[in-house]
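Lecture notes, continued. The same structure-token format from the folding unit now serves as the input rather than the output. Read the line below as a description of shape only.
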């Protein structure tokens, strides 16, 4: 794209004088609700920022904290292999031994709490960015891969609790089997593998163990894609914050070690047990909903979440990406280096100017922050709806309008940092709440170029105030670049001839209703008196803040492990019957019609057509001589040549009962090939199971 100047696009906001006005990312559907949802996050960040500097505040680095906790979980999981036995027959015993040992118990508890912390901070991270409307447009890839990473994180934890093989693991196994049985991919119902302790498949248990170990590799791919469109992503926390996280986890693990519930018993319905709500909350659904309802809930929820970036976007309002004015571009590379989203690259020159390269914007990656405009000394990179040169000229025009009167200061306010009460006349830049200032609302603090500041000061303005997002910048690094330019550490710094005290940069939370006015008044007073800003010394609060936030987070993680869960309690004893048995092979013949015979070659015509197949298997169950169940099960397989499979479970009154069971596998419906009878003493809270194998016959459990 090589226009001589950026032309206002359709739908651009234009003032009465024809001036183009700043435009943040367009509002999404539900904007008002999301802003309301964002308020508590801003309040918490505001409170924690009073106790901790930003580099030590985990709520401002939730993504990096998740990665640190994930590394701890993987490392401690690997160490647990020295003590854990991945066998259904010895898994619980090995967990009890781990619980009894000092070092093994500490490692296991660290594994649990670090995993819980992953979920907690991942959910906080997702909810925070959703409330901030940072999931549409070019951010769709981060949203989709972030959801995938959270799903994989939960799945590996869900399967990890299966491996403990205690009472919660029993419910996990049965709920998962019932859920997967809805898929037409398993020949035998998985739920049948959890009817008795002896029936639990050791191979299936080992597969669960293997998948639990393998999922983190898939998570690594999801996280790599999650950060693929970010330049300079913060993958891990700084050293001090990492130490604080490790110490908090260790202290929590020593004070409240993880414990194992009672052993898994397939024939006993557990009364109640404590669960880790961060991973096991879905037990409430798997224990109470059928597999069809679970699949419907999962499918609808997944679709709604994954289409959110497109569903939330308003059709006629899109992000206006930056453009490159080719004749202004001198291939300085500053815009390429500063863009947080790697949306700008250098490509071969197309206009014949004496530069080999020129910048090019990828609209699919650009979020319209304008940071590139603040980096380009030649104004070659700009926003089409908020051109750098036009806004610079507008600001200088406001200075000329003030000739003969008090010379105003200037305030550049990031849209996302502006309090809701602030009213700015965009035609004159006047704002009653900021007397003595001309105010311009901008997409991001990073949009402000050092040359713009220098020209305003050179034209006589006493000072320039720049307010950006406090804590978590909506567009990433905006306030960082603005601060670096003023401090002289950036590639496009403020001129050394400019007094840095004439520029004030503040991080602002849009809910801080009075701070902007106070900061602006203080800065105006300093410039009027020609003095430097007073140095405000505050007592050290890092230790207090770290302790408060660490204890609060530890309490949340600990509380999530103390939830007492009550599974659905049976009102009567349960009786289950399961078998996989092939009916006898029989030949079924039928007479062919004259039309069917006419279609066959003359030398191959026959009177009948016979098909060999297995007979269905019949089941009859009597309780105290009364018919309780009678059903026929067709042969499985595409051609009806497989075994018949049955899994039945129903209530029986408590007490002693004579139970008779019969199985027929021939065409003669009066013939029962296998029969057996037992007297069972049935009690509430237990399940009695009858299994059949044609080699061993009926087995009663």
């Amino acid at each position: 794209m090589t226009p001589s100047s950026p032309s206002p696009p359709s739908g651009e906001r234009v003032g009465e004088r024809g001036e183009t006005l700043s435009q943040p990312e367009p509002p999404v559907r539900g904007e008002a609700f999301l802003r309301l949802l964002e308020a508590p996050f801003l309040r918490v960040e505001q409170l924690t920022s009073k106790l901790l500097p930003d580099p030590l505040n985990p709520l401002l680095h939730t993504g990096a904290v998740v990665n640190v906790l994930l590394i701890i979980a993987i490392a401690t999981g690997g160490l647990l292999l020295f003590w854990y036995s991945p066998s259904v027959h010895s898994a619980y015993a090995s967990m009890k031994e781990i619980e009894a040992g000092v070092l093994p118990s500490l490692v296991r508890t660290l594994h649990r709490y670090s995993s819980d912390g992953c979920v907690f901070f991942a959910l906080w991270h997702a909810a925070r960015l959703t409330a901030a409307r940072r999931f549409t447009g070019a951010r769709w890839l981060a949203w989709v891969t972030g959801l995938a990473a959270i799903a994989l994180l939960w799945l590996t934890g869900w399967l990890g609790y299966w491996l403990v093989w205690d009472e919660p693991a029993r419910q996990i196994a049965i709920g998962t089997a019932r859920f997967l049985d809805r898929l037409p991919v398993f020949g035998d119902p998985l739920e049948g593998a959890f009817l008795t302790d002896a029936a639990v498949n050791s191979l299936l248990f080992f597969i669960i163990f293997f998948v639990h170990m393998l999922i983190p590799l898939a998570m690594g791919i999801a996280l790599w894609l999650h950060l693929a469109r970010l330049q300079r992503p913060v993958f891990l926390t700084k050293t001090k914050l990492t130490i604080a996280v490790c110490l908090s986890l260790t202290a929590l693990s020593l004070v409240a070690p993880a414990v194992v519930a009672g052993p898994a018993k397939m024939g006993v319905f557990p009364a109640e047990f404590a669960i880790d709500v961060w991973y096991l909350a879905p037990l409430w659904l798997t224990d109470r909903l059928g597999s069809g309802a679970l699949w419907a809930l999962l499918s609808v929820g997944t679709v709604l979440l994954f289409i959110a970036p497109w569903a939330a976007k308003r059709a006629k309002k899109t992000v206006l990406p930056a453009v490159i004015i080719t004749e202004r571009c001198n291939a300085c590379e500053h815009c390429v280096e500063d863009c947080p989203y790697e949306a700008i690259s250098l490509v071969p020159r197309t206009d014949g100017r004496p530069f080999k390269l020129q910048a090019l914007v990828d609209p699919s990656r650009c979020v319209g922050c304008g940071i590139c405009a603040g980096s380009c000394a030649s104004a070659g990179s700009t926003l089409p709806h908020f051109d750098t040169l036009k806004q610079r000229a507008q600001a200088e025009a406001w200075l000329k309008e003030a000739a003969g009167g008090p010379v105003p200061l200037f305030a550049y306010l990031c849209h996302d940092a502006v309090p809701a009460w602030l009213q700015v006349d965009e035609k004159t830049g006047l704002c009653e709440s900021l007397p003595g200032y001309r105010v311009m609302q901008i997409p991001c603090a990073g949009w402000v170029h050092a040359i713009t500041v220098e020209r305003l000061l050179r034209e006589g303005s006493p000072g320039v105030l720049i307010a950006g997002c406090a804590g978590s910048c909506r567009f990433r690094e905006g306030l960082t670049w603005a601060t670096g330019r003023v401090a002289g550490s950036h590639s496009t710094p403020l001129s050394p001839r400019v007094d840095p005290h004439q520029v004030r940069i503040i991080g602002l939370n849009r809910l801080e209703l009075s701070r902007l006015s106070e900061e602006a008044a203080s800065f105006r007073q300093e410039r009027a008196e020609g003095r430097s800003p007073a140095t405000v010394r505050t007592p050290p609060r890092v230790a207090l803040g770290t302790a408060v936030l660490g204890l609060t987070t530890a309490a949340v993680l600990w509380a999530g492990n103390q939830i007492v869960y009550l599974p659905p309690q049976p009102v009567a004893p349960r009786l289950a019957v399961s078998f996989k048995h092939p009916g006898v092979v029989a030949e079924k013949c039928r007479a062919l019609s004259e039309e069917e015979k006419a279609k066959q070659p003359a030398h191959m015509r026959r009177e009948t057509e016979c098909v060999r197949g297995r007979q269905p298997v019949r089941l009859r169950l009597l309780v105290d001589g009364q018919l309780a169940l009678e059903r026929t099960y067709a042969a499985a397989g595409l051609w009806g040549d497989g075994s018949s499979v049955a899994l039945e479970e129903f209530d029986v009154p408590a007490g002693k009962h004579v139970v008779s069971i019969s199985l027929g596998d021939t065409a003669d419906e009066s013939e029962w090939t296998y029969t057996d009878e037992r007297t069972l003493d049935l009690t509430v809270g237990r399940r009695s199971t009858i299994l059949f194998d044609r080699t061993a016959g009926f087995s009663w459990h």
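Point for the exam: DSSP finds 20 helices and 20 strands in the chain.
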